[in-house]
């Protein structure tokens, strides 16, 4: 595990399956419908059980009738997951012309804002944007690490630990390099 501190927030990377992570909250790389999909989104919906889909349908029926906007985040219970909450965020889709890095960074900061509002002290992220939405692993890692570090400076002592749970060794290596380049230094 590579680790660093972004002020009071401990930031680490690990190889693993985000659906098995014990954390206060995990982040879902969702689509705007919130009704499940492929990749991380499909895996989280499958592992959380049918109550997650029901909760997302309720969000769509009530507060998000047009879906969750790109770069925003919303929480549901974790249901059958080891995490208490799932924070859903929608990354910008480069294939659809959504190429603003600030929108990608917003996925991480808004997820942290929602985690803070919930009182979550530990949060696990996947590589939001680095899958079917077409962001390069380097761009996704730099946006993620930069956003988390900036958020931690602005809101110290709110979230204790941010974990990047990555599904492949090459992707983890890219996140480790971004963490080191951000001046974080290696840890564990």
TrEMBL record:
Q: Which SUPFAM superfamilies match?
A: Macro domain-like (SSF52949)
- Give the InterPro entries listed for this entry: Macro_dom (IPR002589), Macro_dom-like (IPR043472)
Q: One Pfam family from the UniProt entry?
A: Macro
Which Gene3D superfamilies does the record associate with it? Leucine Aminopeptidase, subunit E, domain 1
Domain Macro: start-end pairs = 1-183
Q: PANTHER family attached here?
A: GANGLIOSIDE INDUCED DIFFERENTIATION ASSOCIATED PROTEIN 2-RELATED, MACRO DOMAIN-CONTAINING PROTEIN
Q: What is this protein called?
A: O-acetyl-ADP-ribose deacetylase (Regulator of RNase III)
What species does this protein belong to?
Answer: Xylanimonas ulmi
């Amino acid at each position: 595990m590579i680790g660093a501190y972004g002020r009071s927030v401990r930031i680490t990377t690990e190889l693993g399956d985000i659906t098995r992570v014990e954390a206060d909250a995990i982040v879902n790389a969702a689509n705007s419908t919130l009704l499940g999909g492929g990749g991380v989104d499909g895996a989280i919906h499958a592992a959380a059980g049918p109550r997650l889909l029901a909760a997302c349908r309720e969000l769509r029926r009530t507060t998000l009738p047009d879906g969750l906007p790109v770069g925003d985040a919303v929480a549901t219970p974790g249901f059958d997951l080891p995490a208490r909450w799932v924070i859903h965020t929608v990354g910008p889709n480069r294939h659809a012309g959504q190429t603003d890095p600030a929108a990608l960074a917003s996925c991480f900061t808004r997820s942290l804002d929602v985690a803070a509002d919930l009182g979550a002290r530990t949060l696990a992220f996947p590589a939001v944007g680095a899958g079917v939405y077409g962001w390069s692993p380097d761009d996704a890692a730099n946006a993620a690490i930069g956003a988390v570090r900036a958020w931690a400076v602005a809101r110290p002592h709110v979230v204790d630990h941010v974990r990047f749970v990555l599904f492949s060794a090459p992707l983890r290596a890219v996140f480790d390099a971004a963490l080191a380049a951000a001046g974080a230094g290696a840890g564990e």
